[in-house]
């Protein structure tokens, strides 16, 4: 079936100067990256001259110096015709403004008037603010706040003194803890205490041996003639290669 087509393929010959072939070669040359950078690669192989006294280097340096000098003097050139002569520096508005700003920023001159007027202030003793401050000091004073009571002398056999002494003994820390004195030095075993029992119960809950039962400990006997076992045996015999 393909014998005639194979024979025709061997006999076909395309001329190299046909328009399609020429167009394909032109497109390949246009999209070729190697041809695109060929001139640059050849220029790199020739090397380059970067001497300090080369004309392009000197031109670049001169242009940089000119631009730098122009930018540096640009503000000065703009203000050349705006200056007005002054007989002294104090009459120059800009210098006077700068001196004023420096004086305002100086902390010593800023506080000079305040420091001079501090010693000239006189407050009368009976001024309202002074009286209010004294009253406030009296209210917050610890000496005036605490007034100790008079030391009374009572007989030791009075009923109120005896009753107060008994109440004091009941509230006393020594009397309150006197019933625990007999416990000192007595031995005590921790077995059976609440913390020990709680720890044992927690250990039993976390014990994996008690939580899980091993398969060999279970009493189980498989039935040999059950339907599932018989079906499994039949399937095994059907799938056996022997």
UniProtKB/TrEMBL annotation:
Alphabetical list of InterPro entries matching this protein: NEBU/NEBL (IPR055297), Nebulin-like (IPR013998), Nebulin_repeat (IPR000900)
Taxonomy of the source species: Eukaryota, Metazoa, Chordata, Craniata, Vertebrata
Pfam family, one: Nebulin
Transmembrane segments: none
One of the GO biological process terms: cardiac muscle thin filament assembly
Family matches, as PANTHER family: NEBULIN
GO MF assignments: actin filament binding
Name this polypeptide is given: NEBU protein
Keywords for the protein's UniProt record, in alphabetical order: Actin-binding, Repeat
Example of a GO cellular component annotation carried by this entry: Z disc
Organism in which the protein naturally occurs: Pteruthius melanotis
């Amino acid at each position: 079936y393909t014998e005639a087509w194979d024979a025709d393929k061997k006999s076909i010959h395309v001329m190299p100067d046909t328009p399609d072939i020429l167009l394909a070669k032109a497109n390949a040359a246009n999209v070729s990256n190697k041809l695109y950078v060929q001139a640059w690669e050849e220029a790199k192989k020739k090397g380059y001259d970067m001497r300090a006294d080369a004309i392009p280097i000197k031109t670049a340096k001169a242009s940089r110096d000119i631009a730098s000098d122009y930018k540096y003097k640009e503000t000065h050139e703009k203000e050349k015709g705006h200056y007005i002569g002054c007989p002294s520096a104090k009459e120059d508005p800009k210098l006077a403004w700068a001196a004023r700003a420096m004086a305002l920023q100086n902390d010593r001159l800023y506080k000079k008037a305040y420091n001079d007027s501090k010693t000239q202030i006189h407050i009368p003793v009976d001024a309202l603010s002074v009286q209010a401050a004294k009253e406030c000091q009296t209210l917050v004073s610890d000496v005036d706040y605490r007034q100790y009571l008079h030391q009374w002398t009572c007989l030791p056999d009075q009923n109120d003194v005896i009753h107060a002494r008994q109440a004091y003994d009941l509230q006393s820390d020594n009397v309150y803890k006197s019933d625990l004195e007999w416990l000192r030095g007595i031995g005590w075993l921790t077995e059976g205490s609440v913390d020990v029992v709680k720890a044992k119960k927690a250990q039993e809950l976390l014990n994996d041996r008690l939580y899980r039962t091993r398969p060999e400990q279970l009493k189980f006997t498989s039935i040999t003639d059950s339907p599932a076992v018989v079906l499994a045996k039949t399937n095994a015999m059907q799938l056996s290669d022997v």
